[in-house]
């Protein structure tokens, strides 16, 4: 997960000592509309590296996201995420999100009643393999000096 630091209305992504703006780009409305609805994460995988442990979105072990419910509303870029895995702490939160024209899914996890512009941290993942009923969000993490993908597989539930 590439963490971004948000400053006012401008967002900066810090990665390998380079800074670039990700929120000053145009949105991919077609990708966003295709994501509208209710989704569940059916799997979290690490292709080529099955023995790692990942703390997703600084909330919980990545495997706790399997079975999580996500509601994505494309007309206002809001939604919710609910973690309900039996062996993990329950978690529910409003979110804001968008997809930019570079195919990046930008996510902010909010506290109840909190405005998105007050949240300074967010996450940037790559959208892949998008269909009417599924899509993937792919994160890149550093494992022992080697970049490794973390793949979140989403399946539409309605």
Given as residue ranges, the uncertain stretches (5+ residues, pLDDT < 50) are 2-20
Give the strand line-up of the largest sheet: 4-7-8-9-10-11-12-13
The multimeric state of the shown protein is: single chain
Q: Sheet with the most strands?
A: 8 strands, antiparallel, barrel
Tell me the number of helical segments per DSSP (H or I, 4 or more residues long): 1
Overall outline:
globular
Give the N-terminus to C-terminus distance in angstroms. 28 Å
The chain-level mean pLDDT equals 80
Structural class: mainly beta
Q: How much strand content do the residues show?
A: over 45%
Structure characterization notes:
This protein is mostly beta strands and 158 residues long. 4% of the residues lie in helices and 53% in strands. It contains one helix and 13 strands; from the N terminus they run βββαββββββββββ. The chain has one helix at 29-35; strands at 2-7, 10-15, 18-21, 37-45, 55-56, 60-61, 69-73, 78-83, 91-99, 104-109, 121-128, 134-143, 146-156. The protein has an eight-stranded antiparallel barrel. Strands 5-6 form a two-stranded antiparallel ribbon. β9 and β10 form a beta hairpin. The chain is globular, with a radius of gyration of 15 Å.
């Amino acid at each position: 997960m590439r963490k971004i630091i948000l400053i006012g209305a401008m967002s900066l992504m810090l990665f390998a000592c380079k800074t670039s703006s990700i929120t000053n780009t145009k949105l991919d409305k077609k990708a966003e509309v295709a994501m509208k609805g209710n989704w569940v994460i059916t799997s979290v995988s690490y292709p080529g590296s099955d023995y790692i442990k990942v703390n997703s979105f600084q909330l919980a072990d990545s495997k706790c996201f399997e079975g999580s419910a996500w509601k994505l509303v494309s007309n206002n870029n809001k939604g919710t995420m609910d973690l309900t895995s039996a062996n993990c702490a329950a978690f529910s939160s409003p979110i804001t999100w968008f997809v930019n024209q570079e195919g990046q899914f930008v996510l902010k996890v909010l506290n109840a009643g909190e405005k998105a512009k007050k949240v300074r941290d967010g996450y940037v993942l790559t959208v892949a393999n998008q269909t009417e009923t599924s899509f993937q969000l792919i994160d890149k993490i550093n494992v022992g000096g080697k970049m490794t993908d973390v793949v979140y597989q989403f399946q539409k539930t309605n």
